[in-house]
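Workshop exercise sheet. Pairs work together: one partner reads the sequence aloud, the other fills in the structure field after running the prediction. Swap roles for the next sheet.
Pair: D.N. / O.F.
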Amino acid sequence: MVEPVALSDFFIGFFSGALIILLAALYAALFAWEKLQGGAGFRYGSWLAYGLLLACAAVFAKVLHLEGHWKILTVLMVVGYWWMPRLIWRLCAATHAHESGR
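Structure field:
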């Protein structure tokens, strides 16, 4: 049985869920800028954004009492957020290689 969530925990879960989405977008943007511009600042910024995303996902799972398959789904979500920008970058680079003369 799922344990009920207190109203204060619901609001924390809501805001941590929103932060997960925003931090995932920031991570993907910083990852892409690092690939386009180079430089360690964008790389470290993307790692920081992903670390904060992991923290928000942990808070999300904790306050909403996620157990069992829901916890597995949360782990799959953060793993997907790690790999998707990389896979999308490779797809874009492969489909636009003719434009850069490679």
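Discussion prompt: The radius of gyration is 17 Å. What would you look at next?
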